[in-house]
Every structure is written in C-alpha cells, then in structure tokens.
Amino acid sequence: MVILMVLENNERAAKIEALLGKKYKLIYYDSVDSTNNIAKNLSREAAQEGTVILAEKQTSGRGRMGRSFLSEKGGIYLSVLLRPKLSVKTSVRITTAAAVAAAEVIEELSGKKAQIKWVNDVYIDNLKVAGILTEGVINPENQMFNYAVLGIGVNLVKPEGDFPKELKDIAGAVFDDADDEIYAKAVSGIIKRFFYYYKKIEDNEYIINYRRRLMLTGKEVSYEKDGETHKAKVLGIDDEARLILEENGETVKLSAGEVSVKLC
Ligand code: BTN
User: Fold this and answer.
1) For residues 90 and 203, what is the distance between their CA atoms, to the nearest angstrom?
2) Measured in angstroms, how far is the CA atom of residue 188 from the centroid of ligand 1?
3) Model's pTM, two decimal places?
4) For atom 9 of ligand 1, which residue has the closest CA?
5) Distances from the Cα of 100 to the Cαs of 28, 61, 66, 120, 191, in angstroms?
6) Is residue 155 in contact with ligand 1, taking CB distance under 6 Å?
7) What is the pLDDT of residues 49-66, one digit of tens each?
8) 45 falls in which pLDDT band (50, 70, 90)?
C-alpha cells in the first residue's frame, strides 16, 4: 500500500530541482513503501523517461535477490523511470553504469575512495554505502523493454542510533554528517552522471571506469552455483560486465543476476 506525503515547497527539493534543471521531473516524498513501486506505477500511466521518485525514507525498501534494503532517514532513496531501447542482453549496462555514476559522485563529494563490488554495490573502506536495484518489464514480442526502473539507495549518513547489529560490519555511511546542500548535490550528481553514461550506453564508455573501480580484481572469491560452493580468483569483467574468474586452471564467466560472490 503506497501512501505518501508529497513534499511540496520543501527546501531540499528546491535545491535538487535547481541543480537538476528542467530535463527531469522530480517527485519527492516523505515516506513511501518503495520508490521503485511508485516509479513502476507511474510507468504504466505513461510517465516520461527521466521522472525521478525520491523519498526521505522507505518502509519496504527492496534489495537484490529478494533481500530488503534498510531505508531510514539519512539516506538517499531514489528511482528513475527509463524507457530504454535496449535488448535484455545489454540491460545489465543500466545497473552497472549506475554503479559507476554513484561511485564517482560519492567519491567526488566525500574525497573517499569508492569501489564497486560486482555487480553493483558501492563500497568505501570495505563497507557497503550504496546499492542498486533495476527492475523492468520486457515486451515478449521483441525482447525490448516496455520500461525499466533504476532504484538507487545510498547511505549518506548513518541512521539515527546507528545501523542495526546485523549490518554493523557490512554497511557504512558516506558522511558523518550531511546538510541539505550535500544531499542535493549527491542526488542531482548521481542522476546527471547516470544519464551522461546512459545516453551513450551503446558505446559502453562507462565500462572502463567500472573496471577501474572493481574491488574484486585479483582477489579470491567463493560463489554458490547449482548447490555447490566454488572458489576462484577474479581476473576482471568483460564488456557485458560478466565476472571473469580463474577456477581450477580454467576461465569461467559469471553473469550478473546468476550468482553473488563473496570475498574469501
Ligand atoms: C541492493 O543493495 O541489493 C540494492 C538496493 C537498492 C535500494 C534502492 S533504494 C531506492 C529503490 N527502492 C527500493 O525499494 N530499492 C531501491
């Protein structure tokens, strides 16, 4: 159930809109179940590409692989509606380009090195500070998207009273403290940088920057597939963001969405 208070004339929203410019339509909520849900509903009502749903908190924030995403005040929770002219095969570029955009802007604003853990988690000092969940509907006739919703969550600061015990060793925040200015710069910066890469997504330009930030290169990882645990060394990623591994002397490629890998 989605009930919400749309924040009008809110100072933060005004700052973000000023930085974003008129190309994007920003809809800013106090609290929603999930910004991805709102964006999906809007997509069915013919909302345009570039519509951005932003919330101060989410009550049912979703992560990848059926996980939940803690979404207390202090974070950025946004979804961008896209109408990509991309095949399913190249759709991984949306998510991975967004990871690069988020990592670059987070690093520029904080001065802290931001890395990407395959597929699309952003880390600072080995703690996850941002995650991305792209959801979409494919037209079965041509295998192209009817729409896609790109959801980005950033732990800009810690939730009040800190992260819960189970996340303390895994999750981190970008800043100790962040005012409206920083919040607005982070939101607008991530959206604009993402669209910069998205407009040229066929060229795959962003992949070079993804490779530079991949924190797994050269590391030993484990992953589960078909009920078995595998151990392998990460060599890098290919142009479709598949993870390239060396496993028992052989080269193996893993597709995004297929498995998740853990550092050994
Ligand atoms: C992950 O880390 O597994 C992905 C997290 C994605 C969270 C964002 S927050 C905005 C959007 N709305 C959601 O419910 N999820 C995404």
Assistant:
1) 11
2) 17
3) 0.94
4) 153
5) 24, 21, 23, 8, 11
6) no
7) 999 999 999 999 999 988
8) confident
The alpha carbon dihedral of 133, 134, 137, 138 has a sign of negative
- Identify which of 62, 94, 154, 170 to mutate to test ligand 1's pocket (most ligand atoms within 8 A of the CB): 62
Q: How far is the CA of 251 from the centre of ligand 1 (A)?
A: 32
Give residues with Cβ within 8 angstroms of 143, minimum separation 6.
87, 88
Q: Give dist(CA 53, CA 22) in Å, integer.
A: 15
Burial degree of 202 (CB within 10 A; 0-12, 13-18, 19+): exposed
DSSP 11-52: HHHHHHHHHH-TTSEEEEEEEES-HHHHHHHHHHTTPPTTEE
Residue whose C-alpha is closest to residue 180's, from 8, 14, 5, 3: 14
- Residue 36 Cα, ligand 1 centroid: separation in angstroms? 8
Q: What is the pLDDT of residues 186-225, one digit of tens each?
A: 999 999 999 999 999 988 889 999 999 999 999 999 999 9
Separation of alpha carbons 143 and 210, rounded Å? 26
Contact at 8 Å (CB) between 124 and 110? yes
For residues 142 and 130, the answer to whether their CB atoms sit within 8 Å is no
Binning pLDDT at 50, 70 and 90, where does residue 7 land?
low
The answer for residues whose C-beta is within 8 angstroms of residue 103's C-beta and 6 or more apart is 114, 115, 116, 122, 130, 213
Paired sense of beta strands 25-32 and 51-58, if any: parallel
Pocket test for ligand 1, best of 56, 64, 69, 122 (most atoms within 8 A of CB): 69
Tell me the CA–centroid distance for residue 246 and ligand 1, in Å. 31
Query: Distance, CA 132 to ligand 1 centroid (Å)?
Result: 5
The C-alpha atoms of residue 80 and residue 70 are separated, in whole angstroms, by 19
